[in-house]
Design goal:
Shape of chain A: globular
Oligomer: homodimer
CATH architecture of the largest domain in chain A: 3-Layer(aba) Sandwich
Number of helices of chain A: 14
CATH topology of the largest domain in chain A: Rossmann fold
Largest interface: A-B, 99 and 101 residues
CATH class of the largest domain in chain A: Alpha Beta
Radius of gyration of chain A: 21 Å
Number of strands of chain A: 10
Helix content of chain A: 25-40%
Strand content of chain A: 5-15%
Largest sheet of chain A: 6 strands, mixed
Structural class of chain A: alpha/beta
Strand order of the largest sheet of chain A: 1-2-9-6-7-8
Chain lengths: 359, 359
């Protein structure tokens, strides 16, 4: 059976990958943030509109495709967030049981999404909190994966290059949609995998492009961005990730060194942003652009704001910011800035029309 | 500035409508449900992957486009669900204040999404519960809209044809993606607007198609489907909508008569399904297809199941079911069938690997 994905012409696209509709996400022009920064050509790549609500669907599609090829009869993962939800969905479609080892006290909403797809979640007391327990879980899982001759589907080249290759298509789509005339591409980074995938995609582009890939990190997990900016050869470990931005709290540098090197090859640099700036930008994206994204997605746009302040982009430059995940993933975070209390206020009919007479 | 939407070719699509990335949603083949019913060519149209998580974004894009043309300085709506979220997002992008009058005790999550986009919600005590209050609110709003020379953005042709025209593009996309060779298209219906839009889209298709548009309703709101099936000339009012499927609990028949007539013109008929069948199908879609949708979306597929049972479709027919909204909209509903209790179970490291040794 054919897989038809977002085809705008009178023809069928036949895809051999294992797809449930990921990729080919919209690229939309900024209406407020770009103009308010004096930028004429700012675009957002809406990865939040992937099937499970994040770019991780590209990873899961590629990874589950390889599992099916190798006839591995199950998927074993660790995640409390977007990767787990993506794997759960693709496993459901592939009819493969999915086991996700989740951190202690992982958010119930994210676990609920995995359960909806029928995944089995295994919460381990102390996992993600206690270093000894965390290391024991990871090393046990790595051994198990090795014994079964599979990769652990952690979304980093270091663990799972076959999955990360699926993510490189983001760059291809952006370059294609803008006729390769992209000057800057801003990507959020935790362990760097996404940014590295995008830089790889840009550097392997068949036709030349001068697209610079910039790496943006929260101050509390500044392993790559600062080092890239300051001309260091390698990423720098931080003793403890202190950012509160869900999804970017990553232990260790993971793909950090390669990310730094490949971004530099594109001419890109690093930007470091505060969590506060990120949450404010998340609110602005929803209220001024109509883009309901998770906080991690607002990191790229916060990096752009830094670049504008430093005059590192020109008003006429064509700029793309990656919106990595949906606001639905993270309902508590948008609520930081919204008056959810007003849910409780009830109007009478008279009061309603008194109010509406004033608008 | 250009709006680039899902373009798979090396060219730019310039759109004049007010877009934040709606439409051009994926059409994916069924892997489990179709084969398990003996069907070779079943597809799902993933309207849940629109920017705010439902097909209502097509409505909002068209409606807000007309508001902008008419220079109306605000948007006034009633909705406790998908329409409100869609309007809130498009108003945010258009920089128009959005006021949504919501029913008493509307779900907090849906209101939270509207707030995230900066909409002002106005909950009226008794609205949607007490008939007198409900009628008073509607007639007051209709007067207000008339005085301001705007339509009320209720997603029905009866109230807002300019918005509903935006929804007709679903049919165009499906026909284009499948080279017009579609035999059956199943659509869920509350007041019928979506089904009517799809039938209109099919009937106004420039090249001929034999696509039959079928109307599926829950038993508790069988205003159109039964009448269509039984050859009646008009929709039939039910004393009280008793379905629990959110979004399909509609007072009155709204677009019912026109929906019935236009479906019949396409050669389509009606199917009536139980809420229980719908919730089971919602679970199957998530667990077997990797499609996380709201219950209303599973109504179309439940209708298809009826058609298969009645031998009203052939194994080789090309069939499309509309998946109208996201599971994120309705987190409580998927949870009906998932073991959310297991969130609480915590494993020790030893127990984890004892368990994993068995997979």
């Amino acid at each position: 059976m054919k897989t038809v994905v977002h085809d705008k012409k009178n023809e069928i696209t036949i895809s051999s990958r294992f797809s449930i509709g990921e990729g080919h996400t919209p690229l939309i022009p900024s209406r407020f943030i770009g103009p308010s920064m004096g930028l004429k050509n700012l675009y957002f790549k809406l990865e939040n509109l992937n099937p499970t609500g994040s770019y991780k669907d590209r990873f899961a599609a590629a990874f589950i495709g390889t599992l099916l090829q190798k006839k591995v009869p199950f998927c074993l993962a660790t995640s409390s967030g977007n990767t787990g939800a993506a794997l759960a969905a693709y496993c459901a479609a592939a009819n493969i049981p999915c086991y996700v080892v989740v951190v202690d006290n992982a958010p119930a909403d994210k676990i609920r999404q995995m359960h909806a797809y029928g995944a089995k979640t295994l919460m381990v007391g102390g996992f993600g909190i206690n270093t000894g327990i965390t290391n024991a879980v990871f090393s046990g899982l790595e051994q198990l994966a090795k014994a079964k001759e599979v990769s652990l589907p952690i979304s980093a080249y270091r663990y799972c290059p076959e999955g990360m290759q699926g993510v490189e298509s983001i760059a291809e789509e952006v370059l294609r949609d803008l006729n390769r005339e992209v000057d800057h591409l801003f990507s959020p980074a935790g362990g760097g995998g996404l940014t590295l995938a995008v830089a790889n995609g840009v550097l392997s582009s068949v036709t030349p492009t001068s697209c610079r890939v910039h790496c943006v990190q929260p101050l509390g997990n500044n392993t790559i961005a600062g080092a890239l900016r300051n001309g260091l050869a390698n990423a720098v470990e931080v003793p403890r990730s202190t950012t509160t931005v869900s999804g970017l709290q990553v232990p260790g540098i993971l793909d950090g060194n390669e990310t730094l090197q490949r971004c530099r090859q594109t001419g890109g640099t690093g930007f470091v942003v505060t969590d506060e700036a990120v949450y404010n930008m998340q609110t602005t994206l929803a209220r001024k652009e109509g883009i309901f994204c998770e906080a991690a997605a607002a990191v790229s746009v916060s990096g752009l704001a830094e670049a504008v302040q430093n005059s590192e982009v020109e008003p006429d430059d064509t700029i793309v910011c990656l919106i990595t995940g949906s606001g639905f993933k993270d309902m508590n975070s948008p609520a930081r800035n919204t008056g959810t209390k007003s849910i409780e206020t009830k109007y009478s009919v008279d009061n309603l029309f008194q109010f509406l007479a004033t608008i």
